[in-house]
Amino acid sequence: MSFLVAFISLVPIFLVGDFIYVKLFAEPSEKISLGVRWSLALAVGTGVLTLILFYTSLVNFRYGYTVTISITLLFSVLYVAFGIRRWAGRKRFGFNLRRTALFILIGLLLIAILWYISQLAGLGVDGYAHWGIKAKASFLDGGWILSREGMRRFSHPVYPLLVPSQQGWIYTFLGQVDEQAVKIVFVMFYLALGALFYHAVRPFYDKILTVFFTLLMMSTPLLALSALAAYADIPLMFFLFGSVFFLIKWLDQGRIRDMVIGAVLAAFLLLVKREGTIYWLVLLIFPFGQYLFSRRKGQRSVPAGHTLVFPIVAILIAGSWFMLLRFTSIEYGSFEAPSLALLVARRGRLVVIAEMLVRELFLNFRAWGILWSLFLAITIWKRRSFTRPAPLLLWISVVLPIILLSGSFVFSVWPSYTLHIETALSRLILHTVPLAWLFIAMQSADLKAWFNELRYGTMPDSASTAE
């Protein structure tokens, strides 16, 4: 019963997110993939829920969830009512009703199976501390007592509120704390990530090979385990991958709406985990890098307004959260404030960090399999493709965050910084796994004929392999 209530509680989030995506971002004439539509509905709806709860709690925390649920449910009922009225009397729908029903049935079955499997897995540290304890506190308080966050230092008070807001939302519908029931949040984001990855790879391969690459990504050992153990890295991965995916579409097609969607998803990164700030700064390379690249090549220059979308959207979505942190003077004790003097004084750590990073990437097969060895091989093989902006920026979005986040351990205040690395490094690398698989899939498109030879036993002629 708890699973059913938890799932039903997510329906209004989907409806709100779907309305915003369809009405503000999707082109009326565009045929939207159902998987992409629902994935973005989950992401956008979760972000909007977080913002409503945040601002409501600033006014009166005791009514945070009450007001948020009331607004969301009212909006959902109106959206459904207008949708039914619009479709009433139509003899034909704008979509394949049978295929859509089958998609929904399979989706619900996958959600139920993965949620059941997650009950057999342990609860990660995020589940009972960090985000988990924030969610429990918000549920018991009725909203966010933001001024009291500094008292719970062990729960990382500067960690953002998106994930615990959604967990607290489910607790409110359940009427009690159920740490296993809220795992449905991470299962949903895991499946949404798979759906969006499939859509990203589909232009390069047929359906069978696209499913193959999607399963490779989703079965990466540490990624699958994290989805079942309620780690906040899964939502972060989705927002990061979604942002990069739409920014690549913007690079290829130049449509401002793709830039806006990418900027919105990137801004929500700032509300998921602190590492989201690093990823957001790295993603700034996309608009400004493309602007400089187009000018150097003498191509049609990217409009200056496109480069401003990223910071403007981030300020609108996450600016208030960072202002709150600034004015409440909440401190965080795992890292010292970065400075050049401290970096020089601890430069000896860099060699140790580099050695541990190489061992983690290329020798920890239990976590990554052959992913990073394959990524390195593809990088060397397709290095000439870096003259084009999309492959280069995708590669940078994988490599640069790993370098920056690994380097941050120079400023660790743990008594043993190597223990800090052993504890946290794999989870920091995890965020870029879907992007690494996307890079491999995109750069391996030249091998489609070879893949077909393996499947069919003979090398098809060019006419039969062309798409």
Shape: globular
The CA-CA distance between the termini, in Å, is 47 Å
Q: How are helices and strands ordered from N to C?
A: HHHHHHHHHHHHHHHHHHHHHHHH
Q: DSSP strand (E) fraction?
A: under 5%
Overall mean pLDDT: 83
Low-confidence stretches: 460-467
Helical residues, percent: over 70%
Describe the structure.
The chain is mostly helical. It has one domain. The protein contains 24 helices and no strands. The longest helix has 26 residues, at 34-59. The chain is globular and about 55 Å long. The N and C termini lie far apart (47 Å). Residues 460-467 have low confidence and may be disordered.
In a few lines, what is going on in this structure?
This protein has helices spanning 2-25, 34-59, 64-87, 97-120, 125-128, 131-141, 162-174, 183-201, 207-218, 221-228, 233-253, 256-269, 275-283, 285-296, 304-328, 340-345, 348-363, 365-368, 371-381, 389-407, 417-430, 433-443, 448-456, 462-465. The protein has 467 residues and is mainly α.
Topology:
Elements: H1 2-25, H2 34-59, H3 64-87, H4 97-120, H5 125-128, H6 131-141, H7 162-174, H8 183-201, H9 207-218, H10 221-228, H11 233-253, H12 256-269, H13 275-283, H14 285-296, H15 304-328, H16 340-345, H17 348-363, H18 365-368, H19 371-381, H20 389-407, H21 417-430, H22 433-443, H23 448-456, H24 462-465
Helix pairs in contact: 1-2, 1-3, 1-7, 2-3, 2-7, 2-8, 4-8, 6-7, 8-9, 8-11, 8-22, 9-22, 11-12, 11-20, 12-13, 12-15, 13-20, 17-21, 19-22, 20-21, 20-22
